[in-house]
Amino acid sequence: MSVLAELSLFPVDKGESLSPYVTRMVRIIKNSGLDYTLHSMGTCLEGEWPEVMDVVDKCFQDLQQDCGRIYLTLKVDYRSGGSNRLTEKVESVHRQLGEQA
């Protein structure tokens, strides 16, 4: 089983620059050992359902310690038997466009 999850999680009560909080979340994701891709509006992760949801929960619990209001969006794509979808989905589109990934 493969779950792709796009996560955006940040406090809304900590001012304009949120990169220190985003860095905390990315550190948790990185330390999880799951494959991930950071982009400008969130982070995509790939793994098994329990692993991915555990990382989401750890990120939320970390922010909850010192943030009074938290914004979270989570999109999940499950595919039975899939793997390496984090990069393969993007590469497939590039191939169809006749481009190098």
How many strands?
Answer: 4
Distance between the termini: 25 Å
Tell me the name of the CATH class.
Alpha Beta
Cα-based radius of gyration, to the nearest Å: 15 Å
The structural class is alpha+beta
- Bulk shape: globular
The second-level CATH architecture is 2-Layer Sandwich
The major β-sheet equals: 4 strands, antiparallel
CATH level-3 fold name:
Alpha-Beta Plaits
User: Please, what is the average pLDDT?
Assistant: 92
Organism: Desulfonatronospira thiodismutans ASO3-1
InterPro entries: MTH1187/YkoF-like, Thiamine_BP, UPF0045_domain
Family: Belongs to the UPF0045 family.
Domain Thiamine-binding protein: 5-93
Model description:
The protein is α+β, with helices and mostly antiparallel strands. The chain has a single domain (2-97), classed as Alpha-Beta Plaits. Helix content is 43%, strand content 31%. The protein contains 3 helices and 4 strands. A 4-stranded antiparallel beta sheet has the order 2-3-1-4, with helices on one face. A hairpin with a 2-residue loop joins strand 2 and strand 3 (42-47). The longest helix is centred in the middle third of the chain and has 16 residues, at 49-64. The protein is globular. The mean pLDDT is 92.
